[in-house]
Protein CYPRO4-like
Amino acid sequence: MGANHSREDLELSDSESESEYSSESRQREDDDEDNYYSDAKTTPSSIDSKQNPKTPSSLDDVEAKLKALKLKYNTPHAKANNPTGKNAVKLYQHVGFNTANSKWVVSDKVATYSFVKSGSGDESDDENEETEEKSFWALQIGSKIKAKVDENLQLKAFKDQRRVDFVANGVWAVKFFAEEEYNAFVDKYQSCLFENTYGYEANDENRVKVYGKDFIGWAKPEAADDSMWEDAGDSFKSPEKTPLRVNHDLREEFEEAAVNGGAIQSLALGALDNSFLISDSGIQVVRNYSHGLSGKGVYVNFDKERANTVAHSTPRKALLLRAETNMLLMSPVTDKKPHSKGLHQFDIETGKVVSEWKFEKDGTDISMRDITNDSKGAQMDPSGSTFLGLDDNRLCRWDMRDRHGMVQNLVNESTPVLNWTQGHQFSRGTNFQCFATTGDGSIVVGSLDGKIRLYSSSSMRMAKTAFPGLGSPITHVDVTYDGKWILGTTDTYLVLICTLFIDKNGSTKTGFAGRMGNKISAPRLLKLNPLDSHMAGANKFRNAQFSWVTENGKQERHLVATVGKFSVIWNFQQVKDSSHGCYQNQVGLKSCYCYKIVLRDDSIVESRFMHDKFAVTDSPEAPLVVATPLKVSSFSISSRRLQI
């Protein structure tokens, strides 16, 4: 099941005599176009002559003569001067989506758009006191479209076509009659988006207030210095492996069904022999191979009778440690919040829960919302006994070794307390949501306000660098092994940040090591095009991650994220390339729409690349593992051209 995404990229005709456009009109041999569904087999439909009623021959003759005389069918320049009225546009709607009948149809040959301040007209009388706070800018086009200006519109601009596409209870395209009209629309849209996002009028003073003077390149991407992206890309190109491109295919190698009736809740990938599928009733052990995961026939049920109420319920987080012989399982206290008061320590070799720990500081029980390893490769360390914890306003390191060097046994002792060995409890306002670590143990933390903070491996008290938010909460964050790139997940887009800067001595450093100053590169956004976004429905981006590297000198080659039934893959090297076609004729922050999609029949729990050691010589990447509630599939990348 699949569809060629390129249907949304077709050229829209200015001819008023046409009412339907086939997706076949776009050139499918474009070598730079990489975003297509991995299992796409449908062929764009051609225009059916039955769809357009046949015009009587006498009228055909008249219309042909009118075309020849250019009385009705003018050139674009002449058409722009027609008295069509202020803010006039041509409105198209996409129909058929991923079926053989996929096409654009003209919805309105001449419609009028406007940006209106909504709120007062939509509120009841008893709520009028709050209309000032609730008011927002909305885009209105004729009588068919009225939608709030925000990232949910998924607006994509095509400057060379004087066109914008967006999602608003369907997929729409707007064509402008002149370049200055297109530019005026885009400028107004950007201003309305800024005001709706931050609550300030869009001007230079307020942009500095939102982003800070050091991050003015984030507010004005056209003035940003992209040289650091180029320098970093050049220094870490890997000659021996080429990232996923159009002539590579994702081939499904293994499919492993969930056993014992337990739905898969999370995936714990191992870098050694095994990986683990965690369900609400137990753990399924699978074997790591160079072509993916395959079952060992081993399933360990949780011993619920021996686990008290401190931490036990459906595990939300599984963390491998001690050379992947132990696993920490953390479960939320309630279904509504991710916070946990403690965790279970599971011995994989014996198949038993050996201890149950609770979080405590200064004699007081506290909660954690997330845990992670001390560093990227820490789970392979056989002596590891510490890990990091994160709560809304806490960042700390926990130690499972008690003061006497023993771990209490769950059978004979009361619940042991983890030792708070390092960290900081912030007074208020940080609203931490997620975190990740680099190869040397530096920490990146994402927040509810969209800020991303960088902490060195030696101090958790003060961030070395704090990147401003772009208006959306960071729900997941990842970082490359070398700490030079950060990938943040929001509901509607991914944000990729370069942490490199040149200090006053001329040395290149990362933002984990020092204050970056005012020459900070603008981030890049990774988005779905409007058609794919609509196909994904109300689902949000989740858990975007780099491919998995734990060795100095090696570079991650891909990025993968989950949205509904889609597993979406970007070529990392391509995203970093400033000359990439996606970035030409764009407005605002550079956004990459070139990706490959793996489509599943069920909502995806998690998508991750296996460790780099499992990449075979003829493949550009280690296998991709995609888990749904009922099965886990492994895809290897082969060098054969996908037939579309």
About this structure: The chain has a mean pLDDT of 78. Residues 247-637 form a domain with the Methylamine Dehydrogenase; Chain H fold (CATH 2.130.10.10).
